[in-house]
Amino acid sequence: MTSVEPAILAENLAKRYGRIQAVADVSLRVEVGEVVGVVGTNGAGKTTTIELIAGMRVPDRGRVVVLGLDPRRDRARLRQVLGVQLQHAHLHHALRVTELLDLYRSFYPDPRPTDELLDLVELTDQRRSIFEKLSGGQQQRLSIAIALAGRPRVAILDELTTGLDPKARRRMWGTIERIKSSGVTILLVSHAMEEVERLCDRVAVLDAGRVIALDTPAGLVDRAGATTLDDAIVTLTGKNLEDAA
Ligand SMILES: Nc1ncnc2c1ncn2[C@@H]1O[C@H](COP(=O)(O)OP(=O)(O)OP(=O)(O)O)[C@@H](O)[C@H]1O
């Protein structure tokens, strides 16, 4: 057990929506500078888990500490150090790319320059475009730029490259590697095992609202006696990610 404060500490989280136990018991410790993947079949509780960690939902049980802060009590301070990109960002559809970026940049004391953000997610040519005229992949990239606008120390990214073509997906991986090398801690929900293998130091496998394994990608493959991470997840969960996605 290290004495250094973790970037993210989640202990025994539980969350129920009516009769659905979305998160049953999730504990997770992410060290500063790590990239940790969260994988599992549809409905395993991945999005609910990261919403609990980001303070967007209140857990029924358990506690969350992000960089020493309580996501709900220290909401304003946490907003300065945490960037969140969600699966379905609700952005103002009639605004231009730079207007949206500048709106979000205005929330932070030392935001990344607009040009740097545009360059990071390769939207410089679309800077004057209206949000609703962007392609799905471009909208996705803009939501990532918004998550990174305030130079967060922790970034939570949900299905980073879903909807991106293979070339755009690889470019996005390069972007995340650059963000990682600047020391940012990243929690990354993904269905793409190639992405997880390339970007993640460790992977939390969720099933029915519980972490059933937490290890390096190679460690999970070994533990499952598998040859690929895809196969390892199928063995560990007893479910096929491809079928469920
Ligand atoms: N707002 C909500 N109200 C009711 N039920 C919900 C709500 N959000 C999620 N659920 C249910 O909770 C369970 C966990 O959902 P969650 O979105 O956390 O899983 P997930 O692993 O992120 O799934 P996916 O891979 O499909 O995004 C599912 O059964 C889902 O239908």
Automatic annotation (TrEMBL):
InterPro entries: AAA+_ATPase (IPR003593), ABC_transporter-like_ATP-bd (IPR003439), ABC_transporter-like_CS (IPR017871), ABC_transporter_ATP-binding (IPR050763), P-loop_NTPase (IPR027417). It is found in: Cell membrane. GO terms for biological process: response to antibiotic. Keywords: Antibiotic resistance, ATP-binding, Nucleotide-binding, Transport. Residues 8-233 form the ABC transporter domain. Its main location: membrane. PANTHER family: ABC TRANSPORTER ATP-BINDING PROTEIN. This is ABC-2 type transport system ATP-binding protein.
